[in-house]
Amino acid sequence: MRRVRLLAVLWIGGILAQPVLALGTPADSPRAAPADSSLQEQVRTLDQKVRVLERLRELDQEAAAAKAKADPPPVVKPAGKEPKLTVGGLVQAQGEFGDAGDSRFAKNDRFLLRRARINAQGGFLEGFDFRVELDLGGSSAGLRAQLTDGYAAWTGSKIVSIRFGQFKTPFGYEQLFSDPALLIIERSLANDRLTLSRQLGLQISATSLDRRLSAAAGVFNGNGVNNGLNDNEKFLFVGRVTAVPVQAKRSDQEVRWSLGAGAYTTQGSSLTLNDFGFRGNAFSGKRSGLGLDTQVRFGLFDLWAEYLRAQFKPVDSIPSAKLISEGGYVQGSYFLVPKKFQGVVRYELFDPNRDLGGNSTKTWLLGLNYFFKGDDLKLQLDYQRSNASGLSSRENKLFTRLQVVF
Hints:
Layout: H1 2-24, H2 32-70, E1 84-98, E2 110-124, E3 128-135, E4 146-154, E5 160-168, H3 173-176, H4 189-194, E6 198-208, E7 213-220, E8 236-250, E9 253-272, E10 282-298, E11 301-314, E12 323-337, E13 341-351, E14 361-373, E15 377-387, E16 395-405
Antiparallel strand pairs: 1-2, 1-16, 2-3, 3-4, 4-5, 5-6, 6-7, 7-8, 8-9, 9-10, 10-11, 11-12, 12-13, 13-14, 14-15, 15-16
Helix pairs in contact: 1-2
């Protein structure tokens, strides 16, 4: 292409030079005719070369187009007849420094892949959706792939939907909130200890009043994630209702107030539950739970508050015949720079045994979030100061995370 441009410039330059040469040589000069003839011959030669090069370029373009048509780039194609299929993922690279913080974290400084997920989801025209997600990361040694979500759902109605498989149980607002959209790097200790995480089961959901009132009820094995066995013939029953009393805009700012409540009951055996004082951290018996939460948004400001309570009745009465555990948090956040830079403050409390003094964990947390491209690309920094049972009087811990959603 550069040769073509060079020859074209020489050609045009030669044509423009003709008048100059003509002016510089008298018309009756004997050298005028030969010089003019020689210049015209050079122009004809350059013209032929330009035409040849142009044709060669056209042939190269035609060959490239034919190759692309015969060998198209690789694309993800549905194996079935679903009209839509989306493949995505999530990477959260995390660093932890300082003290242990609370019973969930390691005391040693470390780097880890908190989450490294690949997912596929889609739907059929008949009103069925599906989702499958694998997590290749984790906070423990010996990383291995494990299923997080794997379910099919009927969504043929605008009011009612049915979900069957493994997914998050409808209990606890923070637990249900999407992992990539969390304002704090790690959920509260009360959430991790008192909610039910993902389970295998069946759930029916309903919504009305333009999604301002919704409810969900489900029945699950109750044995935890990636466990297809049921330790007895009892099931875990879970329910949640949410309402949005206020949803409006004032001075171009979103104003929203929402409320939620949830409950569960179940009976199981040999369930791993930490921090409650059960023998070997294994619980067998009846348990039930209650949760209340509210969220307020006014423009750039968000306020979350949640209370969780669980009652345990271990069959061996260890550490007691009936144990009540409770906890919760209050969290406020504000965009210092709209959609870019956000500050977060949270206070949380977890008491694993209300009747036993001196075993609660109280935590203050300060966080900063910088959004390069919303939640798809963001950087988070959290400082946590805890007063935790069994640890030093004050625990200071720093978390940092870089998140990419694709």
